[in-house]
Design goal:
The complex is a heterodimer of chains A (215) and B (296).
Chain A: H1 3-15, H2 19-31, H3 36-56, H4 62-85, E1 94-99, H5 107-118, E2 122-125, H6 132-141, E3 146-150, H7 158-169, E4 177-181, H8 187-193, E5 197-198, H9 202-213
Parallel strand pairs in A: 1-2, 1-3, 3-4, 4-5
Helix pairs in contact in A: 1-2, 1-3, 2-4, 3-4, 4-5, 5-9, 6-7
Chain B: H1 2-8, E1 14-15, H2 21-26, H3 38-41, H4 43-56, E2 60-62, H5 70-75, H6 82-94, E3 102-107, H7 122-136, E4 142-148, H8 151-164, E5 169-173, E6 176-178, E7 181-183, H9 190-199, E8 204-212, H10 213-226, E9 231-236, E10 240-242, E11 248-250, H11 254-266, E12 271-272, H12 280-295
Parallel strand pairs in B: 1-12, 2-3, 3-4, 4-5, 5-8, 8-9, 9-12
Antiparallel strand pairs in B: 6-7, 10-11
Classes of the chains: A alpha/beta (215), B alpha/beta (296).
């Protein structure tokens, strides 16, 4: 089997949501002492991108997205310690994410966090009903590149703006990119609140974060 | 009973109500974590909103109990108050309901998902809904299960209602539009959802939320191909916009929304109303359309 075929097999295992196969291929890559960065990027990463495409095509839905993301995360957990031994850095960037204070809706945010981790980001998920202060405190401590703030309600959406205002008052607005999520968020709200972007769903969110980090 | 008469009367278009959240806002009430708590804290405001819908022409209006199932109240640590919140909801709507109109028991999603998205089991859903339905049963004329995005949760809800009540059920799910047609976010097709809902002998198959009035026209066309049961549609009024003062606005005009509803009536929808972003004004506008149709 060529390397390309091996990568394809990994990618297929992810798309087929075959956890056992994905894990066993991850272990095989370690045993055979392959360049793990390539294995992650061309195998697992390719699979998770294909899952994103299938979501956009209306072929995959939430269960497939979550399952694919979880299999990816578990495979990465096996690979990462060995990757460090090979002297490689895998993190594509650091993201602190939370649902804002007063809002207990966490499912969308959790899916975004899962998909970001699956795409190689180091994600700190602070859960739901989280204060702007705590989000910023964590972002500083973890040297985050991106802060993601979710709100499902028009009534709690205002808290998203509070995060940005608080960053401004601390003179730290330029230290982080702030992205918004949640059903009521629109481009005009992003503009009014002074955020750096928003995404309609988890697949879009991954693209957005990649774009912002590469800026 | 009255609702069955309406269903059996081919010339009758049943007018349902519109949104609750923005109406609460308009009355200067600062929304806490759960609007259903206002059944206790601001009962007169809730009654006033119900009355505004009946006055605008709604044949039936639903209780302010969208989030008052046991599981959802638990999300807000309010599960101990399940009796009080649901009982007050009935009181608040009963004082506003005129003769010849109906009270609909509103049942919304639990906020929990089954694996692999979440951890809930069908039995937990069922038990949670049984608790709510038992409290509401004595005060409502019929049921509206709405905004359900998982057919498995809908099954648990319908089983719970059937266990406690023999009143008519409007069974409304929320769909997203994909390149391959309408699906729930859990991946169930419109056809699968409708077939399962029909097997529970519901009176009306419906859809509400997620989609705006324009997309709902297409959804209705697809629904008509699958079911011969009466259909209920409650679309959103476009996307909300928040201004810097924290006020919510919806960009779609009432006239456009009502025009889309008119098209749906022409396509044979039985029950019409609105979801997020609609108001008594929207309902009044639809009322005028219904009147003009019955005159011609």
């Amino acid at each position: 089997m060529t390397l390309e075929q091996f990568y394809k097999e990994i990618s297929d295992a992810i798309v087929e949501l075959n956890k056992e196969k994905a894990i066993s291929l991850a272990n095989r890559a370690i045993e055979e002492d392959l360049v793990l960065l390539d294995v992650i990027e061309k195998g697992f990463g390719d699979g998770i991108r294909r899952i994103g495409d299938l979501w956009e095509e209306g072929e995959f839905f939430l269960p497939e997205l979550m399952l694919g993301g979880t299999i990816m995360q578990e495979s990465l957990e096996i690979l990462l310690p060995h990757l460090k031994k090979q002297g490689e850095q895998v993190s594509s960037g650091i993201v602190v994410i939370a649902t804002i204070e007063g809002d207990i809706h966490s499912i969308g945010k959790t899916i975004v966090a899962t998909m970001l981790s699956a795409n190689g980001f180091e994600v700190y998920d602070l859960g739901a009903d989280t204060s702007a202060e705590k989000i910023i405190e964590t972002a500083i401590k973890k040297h985050a590149d991106i802060i993601g703030v979710s709100a499902l309600l028009t009534t709690t959406m205002f808290g998203q703006k509070k995060v940005i205002e608080l960053l401004e008052s601390k003179g730290m607005r330029d230290n982080f990119k702030v992205i918004l999520g949640g059903a009521p968020v629109t481009p005009s709200w992003v503009e009014e609140s002074g955020a750096d972007g928003y995404a309609d769903n988890a697949v879009e969110a991954v693209k957005l974060v990649k774009k912002l980090i590469n800026k | 009973m009255l609702f069955d008469n309406w269903l059996n009367d081919d010339s009758k278009i049943i007018l349902f109500d519109g949104g609750m959240g923005t109406e609460i806002f308009k009355r200067g009430i600062k929304l806490g974590k759960l609007p259903d708590l206002l059944n206790i804290e601001e009962p007169q405001v809730i009654s006033e909103i119900h009355k505004a819908y009946y006055d605008a022409g709604s044949n039936m209006v639903q209780t302010n109990t969208f989030g008052s199932s046991y599981l959802n109240l638990q999300n807000y640590k309010l599960e101990d108050r399940i009796n009080e919140i649901n009982e007050k909801a009935i009181e608040n709507i009963r004082v506003s309901c005129p003769n010849g109109a109906l009270v609909v028991g509103d049942i919304g999603p639990s906020g929990h998902y089954r694996p692999p998205v979440g951890k809930i089991t069908p039995e937990e859903w069922f038990q949670s809904y049984v608790k709510q339905v038992e409290i509401l049963e004595k005060g409502v004329d019929l049921w509206h299960v709405e905004t359900i995005s998982d057919i498995e949760e809908m099954k648990a809800t319908l089983e719970a209602i059937k266990k406690v009540s023999s009143k008519p059920i409007i069974s409304s799910m929320t769909y997203k539009k994909t390149k391959r047609g309408f699906f729930t976010i859990m991946g169930d097709s419109l056809e699968k959802c409708i077939t399962i809902q029909e097997s529970y002998k519901v009176s009306v198959i419906g859809s509400n939320c997620t989609l705006g009035s324009f997309d709902m026209i297409d959804l209705l066309k697809d629904m008509k191909k699958i079911t011969s049961l009466p259909i209920s549609i409650k679309p959103n009024a476009g996307k909300p916009r928040l201004d810097l003062g924290g006020q919510t606005h919806y960009d779609q005009s009432i006239e456009e929304f009502a025009d889309h509803i008119h098209k749906m009536i022409d396509l044979g929808v039985k029950i019409v109303g609105g979801c997020c972003g609609t108001s008594p004004k929207t309902i009044y506008e639809i009322k005028k359309i219904i009147k003009s149709i019955s005159r011609s």
